[in-house]
Specification:
By secondary structure, the protein is α/β, with parallel strands linked by helices. 39% of the residues lie in helices and 14% in strands. Helix 3 crosses helix 12. Bound molecules: phosphoric acid mono(formamide)ester.
Length: 364
């Protein structure tokens, strides 16, 4: 018998134990939390993503990439809707030559007959080499990882969004995008980031905040409704890691007082699907004015302020922002594919070969 689920989960709160539980041979094996990545690992992932992106521009590079994971099979188990994450994971796998399968309606699987997470993922590990999963339950990917860590044939598990808690691969693509945007401005260190929305229920915003702790003294200004303000666990973690943190009830006063000092604004939608009555009718969807990046605020921020959103959006980031010089939302989407390809390469150990090849051809 291996460890219990409670022991596994408790171990994830301690840095060294977390590394033991989630890594194999110094590589991520279970990808569940932003906190599991060190600064060096983040930088290395970003460099691999850039190497893949540049190799992919050439026929020879594409051919090389597609040979790397030939015969590798990836199960994408998505129990919640997704456009970007599911498709970018599959496109990333394609780039490296892996085969993918998508189950997006888990009522078609034996979960519908009451099969446990443990039995389901052990079964899938008989046919696949890795599982990518999104689930409404905060613990699903964690539980799948624990079950496989106790199994005779463990395979990697990558969370593609865990309930309201974390969306680790979104935060990796967000940091990759920020790093690119700040390449000529000293990188992500010391940057002043505004994160708007329903922080308590927004896994992308939460994961980004956790990942920012890996950089030198950033500041985060959360702007959120009181009912969905960042939780104490997140705030304590940020402060412990010397992130300057403030929580504000509305966006306009923040931008009026310090808009020109803001380096990036990360806008997120109101997570109304978690409301007790479920997703409201289309006419009732969206954020209230305090949490909308109104068009008129353009004059309050610098032209080089980076404007981000994990998407999908409702009303909180008007299309009028798309011609702002710092608008990088569509770059984020595309970067999702590159960083997820880099993650597959990192998990499987193909990353060193990729970087070596890109370096040999002068691409990095
Ligand atoms: N950003 C994101 O997670 O989008 P999807 O829900 O479309 O995957």
């Amino acid at each position: 018998m291996g460890i219990t689920y409670e022991e596994f989960k408790a171990g994830l709160n301690k840095r060294e134990r977390r590394r033991e539980l989630l890594s194999r041979d110094g590589r991520p094996f279970f990808v569940l939390l932003s906190q599991q990545f060190s600064r060096t690992e983040i930088e290395s992932l970003c460099d691999t993503a850039t190497a893949i992106r540049r190799l992919d521009r050439h026929v020879g590079g594409r051919h090389f990439l597609r040979g790397l994971l030939h015969g590798y099979r990836i199960m994408n188990l998505f129990a919640q809707p997704s456009t970007r994450t599911a498709e970018s994971f599959m496109a990333a796998a394609d780039k490296l030559g892996a085969t993918t399968r998508l189950v997006s309606d888990i009522r078609t699987s034996s979960f519908a007959k009451g099969e446990s997470v443990e039995d389901s993922v052990r079964t899938l590990s008989s046919f696949f080499d890795a599982i990518v999963t999104r689930h409404g339950d905060d613990d699903f990917a964690m539980r799948a990882s624990w079950a496989l860590s106790n199994a005779g044939r463990p395979i990697p598990v990558i969370s593609a969004g865990s309930g309201k808690s974390q969306h680790v691969t979104q935060s990796l693509l967000d940091i990759y995008t920020l790093r690119y945007s700040f390449a000529e401005r000293g990188g992500v260190d010391g940057k002043n980031v505004v994160i708007i929305g329903d922080i308590a229920r927004n896994r992308a915003a939460r994961s980004l905040a956790y990942l920012l702790t890996r950089f030198e003294k950033p500041s985060i200004h959360f702007v959120s409704p009181a009912a969905f303000a960042p939780d104490d666990t997140l705030l304590r973690y940020l402060r412990k890691h010397e992130v300057g943190v403030d929580v504000h009830p509305a966006l306009e006063p923040v931008l009026k007082t310090m808009g020109k000092d803001v380096d990036a604004i990360y806008v997120t939608r109101s997570q109304q699907e978690w409301d007790p009555g479920g997703m409201p009718d289309a006419t009732e969807r969206g954020s209230s004015r305090e949490f909308v990046l109104e068009t008129e605020y353009r004059s309050l921020v610098r032209p080089d302020c980076v404007i981000m959103h994990p998407l999908p959006r409702v009303n909180e980031l008007p299309e009028s922002w798309e011609d702002h010089p710092g608008f990088v939302v569509w770059r984020q989407v595309r970067n999702g594919m590159w960083i997820r390809a880099a993650l597959f390469a990192n998990v499987t150990g193909a990353d060193a070969e990729i970087r070596h090849r890109a370096s040999r051809f002068g691409l990095v």
